Every structure is written in C-alpha cells, then in structure tokens.
Amino acid sequence: MSQTEYVAPSTVEDAVKALETAGARAMGGGTDLLVQFRSGRAKPSVIVDLKRIAETIGVRQEGGGFVIGAATSGAALGEHAALAKAWPGVIEAANLIGSTQVQGRASLAGNLCNASPAADSVPAMIAARAVCVIAGPDGRREAPVETIPVAPGKTSLKPGEFIVEFKLPPRPARASDAYLRLIPRTEMDIAVVGAGVSLTLDAAGVITEADVALGAVAPTALLVPEAGAALVGSKLDEAALARLDAAAQAACKPISDKRGTTEYRTKIAGVLARRAAQIAYQRAGGQA
Which is it for the CA torsion 151, 118, 37, 11, positive or negative? Predict the structure, then answer.
C-alpha cells in the first residue's frame, strides 16, 4: 500500500522542491484537501504544508495596497481592520467559506486552487483585481486571480508552483466593493450564484472604474468586462443597472443541477450583480 508523506518546509525554495515530486499537493488550510484525502478522492504522494513559511502567513500594507499571505486564515483576515475597511467585499466573501471552525483554517489560496466554480472568495478577488505571486522552479511570477482556475478542479499552476501571496491594489478615497451569493439554506451551503463588484467614484458620484465578477455560472469564476463597462460614466441609475443586468446574464454559461437550473442561475446573476453594485456604490460614498 502506498503511503502519503507529510512535509512542512520553512522556506519557499524547499516548498518548491517538495512540490516537484510527482503527485505532491500543496496545503494551505487543508479544509478541502484533507476531506478529499480521507474520502479517497485525492491521493497525494506528498502533502506540502505551507503554513510554516513566513511569507504565506499574515497581512501587510505595501505601496498603498495590501499583501495577503496565501495560507492566512479567513478568521485572521476578518480581524484585520484596515483590510476590512479598504476591501469589505473581499472580507465578506472570505468569511463565507465554511463554518466558524473552518474559518480558523481556510485560506484564500486553498479556496482558489480547489478550483470550484462556486468558490465564494474567488469572484470577490477577481473584482478586486487581485494578483497572485507564484513561486516555482523557474523563480517567481505574477498572474491575475482569474487566470488560475482553468476548469473545475484544475488550475494553471505548473508542477512545483504554488501561490505565496496575493496583492490587492491601492484604494482611492471614493472606492469600495461588495460580494453577494445566493444559497438554498441560510448558511454553510454552496453558492448557486455569486457576484462581486468593485467601484471607484469621482467627487460627483460618477463611476470612473468598475469591475464585475461572477461565480457558479460557468466552469470557472468569470471577470465580466462588459458588465463593468456598463456602469462607467453613470451614477448607478436604473439604465446603468439594466445594462449591468443584461451584461451579467449574457456572460453566464451555467449548468442545471439540483441547486438551480440554467435559466434560474442566469436570471439570478443579473439580480445579484445589481444588488452588489448598489452596496458597493453606497460604501464608496455614492447616493443610490
């Protein structure tokens, strides 16, 4: 019977070497990987625990923005006041991952690299234009969050690569974000649809930048440029919201399953995008 080895490197370089082993899997919080391992769905040759690497834990402000260690727990993110003020949508999305107990372990990188189309933190991170810092055998590189999942359960990371940290850009004074999801139950369920919206306003309340992302409506979470463009130049009036709704629906390519039909998911995507935009607009100082 084959056995799985566990290693906990303390440097990025040692983690990369361990992950070059065939069948190796990186572990941030482990809330997905360990469940898959115990059920037999995942059979890694080596589990590489990243939490002992200093760069993968914690939040720091840098260049006016934020850098989040890839293995930082959701609970720790929620306790960081400056991050929560600048990016409330990212925090509310991260805080929807699992139960209170799970929050003590679950990480943004794990949620992203599990590559579920319905992952809650991913649309919010995409709308925030978050960038991944990735380490691997060829050194370090950066990539937008939306380029990491390529299909359900699959990522674009190469053998030996792992996410070290995330970068969130600086925030202007009149900017904010929001994340909403629809689930069948009141808590601890998988999103039927998720929507993240990030907005920047000028002094008159006109939207100058907008990013919209959707989850659970395609094989991967989507950045929807047409939906963001629908809001730019408006004060989030009904016409702009209608354009946003239509663009969000047009981007959807969902499946029908026991949690929702294709038609239902498509309709809800437009509704949630509208509502998230209204929340983000008000948080940014606009008068909706």
Answer: positive
- The alpha carbon of 145 is separated from its chain's Cα centroid by a whole number of angstroms, namely 7
Residue 288 in any domain: the answer is no
What's the pLDDT tens digit per position in 68-83?
Answer: 999 999 889 989 999 9
Residue 9: both structure tokens together: 């490197």
CATH number for 230? 3.30.390.50
Q: How many of the other CB atoms lie within 10 Å of CB of 158?
A: 13
- What CATH number is attached to the domain comprising 69? 3.30.465.10
Give CA–CA dist 125/151, Å, rounded: 18
C-alpha span between 130 and 100 (Å, rounded):
25
Same domain, 113 and 226: no
CA atoms within 13 A on the CB side of 82: 12
Q: Are residues 155 and 199 in the same domain?
A: no
Q: Of the candidates 138, 168, 198, which is a domain's last residue? A: 168
For 103-148, how does the pLDDT look when each residue is reduced to its tens digit (9 = 90+)? 767 889 999 999 999 999 999 999 999 999 999 999 999 999 999 9
- Residue 204 located in a structural domain: yes
Which strands form 46-49's sheet, in the order they lie side by side?
5-7, 46-49, 24-27
Q: 108-144 as b/e, with b when 16 or more CB fall inside 10 Å?
A: bbbbbbbbbbbbbbbbbbbbbbbbbbbbbeeeeeeee
Write out pLDDT tens, residues 33-59: 777 888 878 788 898 999 999 999 999
**Which residue segment(s) compose the domain that 79 sits in?**
5-168
